[in-house]
Amino acid sequence: MIECGVCAYWVAFGPTTGKCHRHSPRPGTQVDDTSYWLETLNDDGCAEGVPREEGKEVMVRCRDCAFWRRRKGDQGLFPKRRGDLPLSWWREAGFCARFAPDPGSTTEIVVWRATHANDRCGDGEPKQKTE
Ligand code: SF4
């Protein structure tokens, strides 16, 4: 187990605060669902972290990821309800299809959650590796 402050998946935005980008968003069931990586403190930690190494990147940007999908080519997404995000964000958004939906106990329709082209995570795979 290592602390977030030294983890390769941690994206700092303050001296003691950052966001854990170890995993990609799981599919949801809400229309226009988006993705927020959750905040942790530098002295939090878990068993899935790996130590940050100079010059070694463990995350993939969504725009470079084999699991990132845009239904209308490069036009981005067209939300029904854009929520708290501006249309400029949606124009640079796509769906993260890293995981299949988990079986549920209802008949809801699955929605792959939107991420921004500049988002990144540790579950991604570069396009050239799988295509
Ligand atoms: S990098 Fe790939 S797997 Fe990770 S959030 Fe983006 S699209 Fe999903």
Summarize the structure.
By secondary structure, the chain is mostly beta strands. The chain has helices at residues 87-91, 127-130, and strands at 2-3, 10-12, 17-20, 39-41, 45-46, 60-61, 68-69, 93-96, 114-116, 120-121.
Task: Set down the secondary structure blueprint.
Elements: E1 2-3, E2 10-12, E3 17-20, E4 39-41, E5 45-46, E6 60-61, E7 68-69, H1 87-91, E8 93-96, E9 114-116, E10 120-121, H2 127-130
The structure holds iron/sulfur cluster.
Iron/sulfur cluster binds next to strand 10.
SS element count, helices: 2
Oligomer state of the chains in this structure: single chain
- Determine the structural class based on helices, strands and strand pairing: mainly beta
Report how far the terminal alpha carbons are from each other: 34 Å
State the major sheet. 3 strands, antiparallel
* Cofactors, ions, other ligands: iron/sulfur cluster
The side-by-side strand order for the widest beta sheet comes to 2-3-4
SSE string, helices as H and strands as E? EEEEEEEHEEEH
Which outline best applies?
A: globular
